[in-house]
Specification:
- By secondary structure, the chain is mainly α.
- It has nine helices and three strands.
Amino acid sequence: LDRPNPINGTTVEGKSLQLEFRSFIGRHEVPMRHGLTLGEFALMHQRYWTKDSCQLKVITMQNWDRSMYFDNTGLPWALPSPNIARPATTLTFPAIVLFEGTELSEGRGTVQALEIFGHPKLDPFGWMKRSLQDKIKRSGLQGFALRPIHFKPTFDKHMNTPCGGLQLHITDRSLFQPWRVGLFLLREVYHELKDDFSWRQPPFEYNEEQLPIDLLNGCFELREWVVGQGDMEQLNTLEDHAEFAQQRRKILLY
């Protein structure tokens, strides 16, 4: 039984996963934002990613079109994860989930998980005023706003420790590019925290060897882009999903 993609079925964004970084998070050469329904993903697997056939039949949805976000469907929200409590979180998720690969909090232990991030040593108000606001303008990224906040997680990273951070608000989802915004924020906080920043170390999601951030990104080049303070044009050249996009067009059901 097919299900809607909660952040529309048209937008594809990100660098496709490299197979040497496959993990429990991602097994196939798929970008962060793939624009597929679950049924279409199953068809992709059957056609391109496995030699084993199965009796697969996707029962399509009625009254859904690819431009829909979840709130356009009129359906009740059933949590796909304890940390995705509302449909709005699905759009911030591709950005904030990258902070799982760091020692910053991604909001777990709060009521805004995967919508906020922070660290005990981060001064969000000072950072925003001193440099971040201007860098956002220069980046060309649109469709979002950042609100400086303080929060204290009740579990997970920095449990019971006050953290300075930012909340990601979507102001125009047609312009918002979560993959780019997430990497932009990761780059900026890396260089803002300096020695207080650290990458999360393995094990992570059943992988004992590779850095969690590389598993989340599906490659190591994006981590190098963050560390090297690469610009947005370089990020555009790293985005590569041409082969996936070609395969995807052949199996779309809607």
